[in-house]
Fold this protein.
Amino acid sequence: MTNKITTLKITMGLPHTGLVDLLKRAYSAEKAASFAYQGHAGSVKNAEEKKAIKQIERDEWNHRREVFAIMAAYDVLPSKYYELRFHVIGKIISASCYVIGWFMPFYFAGRLESGNVCEYFRMKQYFNSLGIHEHDKILYEMGMKEKEHEVYFLEKIKANKLLPFFEKYFGWGNRESFNNIDLDKKYPVEKSDSYCKK
Ligand SMILES: [Fe+2]
Ligand SMILES: [Fe+2]
């Protein structure tokens, strides 16, 4: 039976272009994030911040591995275009962390993480629309991990006097988020369908 399912998966690929693109994008964007956090961790002076950001970098490499495992199960290959594009983006952000001061790397990391949360919940919804539920747990966990990252960065800057200004112009901060997840009142995986519904 398992062999039959595996054969079916490989021969059918993933009949969902939006999902395939989202997987490829996330796989490459995780690399960009990892590179960016290398620069971010390197540029902060505070030892605790450095340690926390290095852990976040490890989380992102881990996500990249998990996304690859899902892609491989359906014979989906990484996109050469995204790999190159996000490689360059990640390296540029990484280098910029050394010159744009303390606040902005924390702000834009939090803003980016806020958007990444729903990518994993959207993937789950797409898989579920194909009747596939075997990735629910890992996608839920990755989405929640991105939320933890968002909260970490927001905590660091929530009292900063620059935040109201950035929130007004970039649409993320104390009052605005790109997802509807509250870590203090989490729904379990099987009841998480209301997350990130547009
Ligand atoms: Fe990630
Ligand atoms: Fe993250």
Observations:
- Residues 33, 59-60, 113, 116, 146, 149 surround fe (ii) ion (ligand 2) (CB under 6 Å).
- Residues 40 and 97 are 5 Å apart (CA to CA).
